Amino acid sequence: xxxxxxxYGSITSPFVRRLRFVLHELGTPFDLIDSxxxxxxxxxxxxxxxxxxxxxxxxGQILWDSxxxxxxxxxxxxxxxxxxxxxxxxxxxxxxxxxxxxxxxxESAINVFYLRKDGVEVDKVAYxxxxxxxxxxxxxxxxxxxRDNYFTAEKKIGLSELTFYCILDWLRFREMYPVLQDPVLKxxxxxxxxxxxxxxxxxxx
Length: 205
Ligand SMILES: N[C@@H](CCC(=O)N[C@@H](CS)C(=O)NCC(=O)O)C(=O)O
Fold this sequence. Notes:
This protein has helices at residues 14-26, 38-47, 66-76, 89-117, 126-145, 159-173, 183-193, 196-200; strands at residues 5-9, 30-34, 55-58, 61-64. By secondary structure, it is an alpha+beta fold.
């Protein structure tokens, strides 16, 4: 693997954060091109037709989407104990459901966040009211899946725990959900917040 990765992304994005977590765990250095700057955004768009982050230049190729990039790193670093938990069998499919649910939650919240920023009155748009209700529905379900702040009996952070943490922190700092007023969510965040790669990837604020 090349020794340096170029990562197009922002340090506020929950999708970029889960990739930054994996890179931190693996001790893989990267150059961050900040997609929130005009120059960084323009550079990213020359590489990625989807115009979304994260996107990386790695081993002489361009990859986009955090799932694809994490899968690539997992394959390249097979056997490394610093990789995320790798569930097998039925647990693998449950993990995918957990991650898809958490992604759906933050995608809906991001949708509401940006339209509200653009001046849309959320309460007057039925689709946005539904988006907010979806956030609630997903969080309610995810909470039922937790056991002692993990989703599985194996007490190792996997993509589901990581994704859940990243989306909760995003919902918290963007004030899109009163995460810290919910005892289960608060306990989850407090439990994982001291993990070094979680601390190292914390967004500002
Ligand atoms: N499924 C993608 C989601 C990527 C995504 O939605 N990224 C956001 C960053 S928070 C983005 O770039 N949004 C830009 C836009 O929607 O214009 C992944 O996991 O990488």
